[in-house]
Fold these 2 entries.
Entry 1:
Amino acid sequence: MSAINYSEKIPNNVNLAEDRTLQRALEQWQPNFINWWDDMGPEGTTDHEVYLRTAVSVDPQGWAQFGHVKMRDYRWGIFLNPGDSERQVHFGDHKGEKAWQDVPGEHRANLRRIIVTQGDTEPASVEQQRHLGLTAPSMYDLRNLFQINVEEGRHLWAMVYLLHKHFGRDGREEAEALLQRNSGDADNPRILGAFNEKTPDWLAFFMFTYFTDRDGKFQLAALTESAFDPLARTTKFMLTEEAHHMFVGESGVSRVIQRTCQVMNELKTDEPAKVRAAGAIDLGTIQRYLNFHYSVTIDLFGADQSSNAATFYSSGLKGRYEEGKRSDDHVLKGQTYKVLEVQNGQLVEKEVPMLNALNEVLRDDFIKDSVAGVERWNKVIDKAGLSHRLKVPHKAFHRQIGALAGIKVSPDGRPVSEAEWAAKEAEWLPTAEDRAFVASLMGRCVEPGQFAHWIAPPAMGINRQPIDFEYVRFG
Ligand SMILES: [Fe+2]
Ligand SMILES: [Fe+2]
């Protein structure tokens, strides 16, 4: 692989052309990445030319270049946001020291773990979404799916860059392992639970990109605060791409709701069976999907009390969301935070040391952010003149991780018996029948400008192109 023009093939601002060690590591890894993409990436798309946004630099002109490209030829770049040589650690025990350009030996294992855990989610979501192209509701949506897929691929590259550049041989081994674990694989699954769930249909995809990509936003935002400067700068750039993923989720669910309300008004009915018979997704099913994706996603923040979270913060590896905008001492010793636990069958708040509750702090920030978009969905229903409202469930509902795992709580936050749970579960979480109904609506609808019946067209196209633009050329 001699005489590769690195800045052409791999757009970057990390001086790859002069870094022989990094070149060698990437040359080894890149063919395995392409094999992974061919095997586990979007199914049956080798010859498609997709109207994709490619980042070629971090300045405003360069980070969003549009054009038709084959996805396996996508220029997966490596970008760090511009650095500040005076940057200081601004929280934890190292507060006020100079930010680190290299990995301090004592934090090496924890930093590697953080980077690997983040890196593992990126290819996982590509694997989860690999069949969705076969049932796309429009060419516009198909293109958005592929855009997300290539960007998650680039996020994997971003984490692999850090592993190759800063972690030597064990970093290279971890980078290989990121291609070997697979979502849902019984023997070698992805690290985090939500990334081993299926994303079987487009309603699930929109909920996933609304909620689970938003988990990505909060994890990345917490890492942009890191004392390890290359991690902070890499994740900052990843956040610019994450915004699009959440847009796809929010607008996707919004368009589903819009069509449902239109059908309800045309038929003057709120009966789920009639809405379904007319080929739209009833609001009850949308609510159950919301309940599922929300509860699975808030588990991703980890146990409500965690000594790892305290260590990551105090050692400067991972901050809070918008750490720099907070007005406390940024050390947090002696401060407390409220978490939930069950006492005598009731949910009660308990004050615990804030350092140990930082997963809960981040989860609560996520909850505030995700509720705002659900209110925007409600405006769509409101505008249609209907009184139904969607709602995120209580944070104790359907939890698998932390103190709330193993207890049964209703969506409105009431601890319930096993018997009540069993009787009500079908009202609260998607049933096999709900999923089969949604699956029955999923057909491939990919002529330019055509949209499946169950979803409204978007308000506008991509990059000011018309809605009926040929976003994907099938080869
Ligand atoms: Fe990502
Ligand atoms: Fe994402």
Entry 2:
Amino acid sequence: MSISETQSKVTASHLQRDAYLYVRQSTMRQVIENSESAVRQYDLRGRAVALGWPRERVIVIDVDQGLSGATAADREGFQRLVADVSLKKAGIVLGLECSRLARNNSDWHRLLELCALTDTLICDEDGLYDPSTINDRLLLGLKGAMSEAELHILRSRLRGGTLSKARRGELRTSLPAGLVYDPLGKVTLDPDTAVQGAIRHLFECFERTGSARAVVKEFTARKLTFPQRIRTGPRKGEAVWAALHHDRVLMVLHNPRYAGAFAFGRRQSQYLAGKMTVRQLPRDQWTALIPDAHPGYISFAQFEANQALLLANAQARGCERRAGPPREGPALLQGLVICARCGQRMTVRYHHPGGHTVPEYLCQNEAINTATSRRCQTIPGAGIDRALATLLLDTLTPVALEVALTVAQELEQRADEADKLRQTHVERARYQAELARRRYLSVDPDNRLVANTLEADWNAKLRALADAQDDYERARTNGNGRLSDEQRAKVMALASDFPRLWNDPATPQRERKRMVRLLVEDVTLARDQQITAHVRLKGGQTHALTLPLPSPVWQTRQTHPDTFKLIDQLLDDHTDAQTAELLNQAGRTTGTGQPFTALSVLRLRQDHRLPSHRQRLRARGLLTPAEMAQRLGVHTSTIKNWHAAGLLTGHKANEQNEQLYEPPAPDDPRLVKHAGSRLKNRESHPSTPGGAV
Ligand SMILES: [Zn+2]
């Protein structure tokens, strides 16, 4: 392309407008490592100047630096460029390689179209193009297509041979730990029994618990390690033993080779928008899946069952409103309860009064969100679980279920129709927005008044489109709770067998929880004067249950008032143990119907702040041995001797056999006989320590 030809493309109309230099690198790493390319990009500014634009009218758009360019939607800089081009602000767009100006081909074609419409030039290192002329337009289009095709051809050539081998199941791929190639190249189980044992234990543990997390917990609790094959480096192929982590468990469970199946192409690495990404493919897009190709640790059927379970667990985590997997613990509705006050899922907590486990449902969302201890509501769970079980047993006859499921299906069909209607609404909005855009683009930009009105109109139409799309999405996500054929079959099978399974004492609580999950969509709980539970079953039926609030623990366990009065009287003259004994003789029992013990009497009087027998004796003026000894001026052992000899009146104060003594009358002849002079002596000199007799 000659200089004159190049320059003839630049007209006065172009030069009146600004030059746009679009600088982009797709990743932060490129920004750091590839500054040379950035220098080249900025050099294009010199080119714009050479073509006749004043340096200060070259606008650099480089906000995309460090952002990846998968689509134009999240690239502010590219959008600004498109907007300015469509507003006819740009006379020329400069970029390093114009085909890479917009990485994704549809973005590229849109920009080309706009440049053609607005008579904007395009310039890269190879040359200057006028997209409104057919030749340049074709050339540019081709450049964009080529950059995509180039990558594709390169990739497919490399993969062609590999793929056909993989389709025959003959490709030798690296095997996961636990599987090895024998000398003939056939896949067999690793002869190391420790490796085999660890893998078998993982599968068995998952089958037992139904959760990958539980597998990790068990391995950790029992300090078990798991084999792992080194993939690269000098020790490549060797097995090392390391702690088992959650992602490793998932990898093992998802790998069909453990089920003896040859699989290839489960993941796809793509060079998307200048970046290598790896994504998991759905199974129907795998290159090859050949069951029973070699020995495995589980059957293919078991593998399929595991996948279904993992999917269900993952869905539970994916969305707040969906049910969680059944965990340990007896609360039937764990993961299914929704708080009626705030609409969030409630969690379970267990209490263990007297050895029983009692669940309690609580809403902590407010506390978590606000980082305070404010709890939205707390609802005792035992009554709810019982009521729900009764409800399920009463209502879930096969006939009732069949009807419910049929109704649900009809509702789904109606929802589909509504969905189509809403979709046409979105289409209409999109068409009108497009119409407004074209009207706006076709107006002479110098005709300001008309252009402004049309621009406002275009904006309004775009907003209407966004609203319509939002409505559509919202309506779609609200239409959840649909049943797949498979779920439907499961529910029906369960219905005929349900009461027997439920009441069988051998059925583990976890299985009951699974059954509840199959049958119940969710339960919304509210508490005020009573507990209200709105149960939504899978078929779409709803039931409202009302339950009385259970009386608080202290009330149900209160000791009968008469018994309590008796205890108060007995403590005047008896220790805790003696009181308990007398109560039992009188046929009284505790609030929970148990016989009294010294400990239960102790707790009762502590809870109700009743004075103990000892405190009562002290209040009556009885003295401790030390006080008595001091009073009489003798050693404490003398007091004990006198008590044993019957000279002093003592009372047993507690279970430790402590004695308290009636104070001596000042004229007690027995005391005067033994200690008369000293007693007088001590009274006149109270500070003198008393000596032994
Ligand atoms: Zn709440």
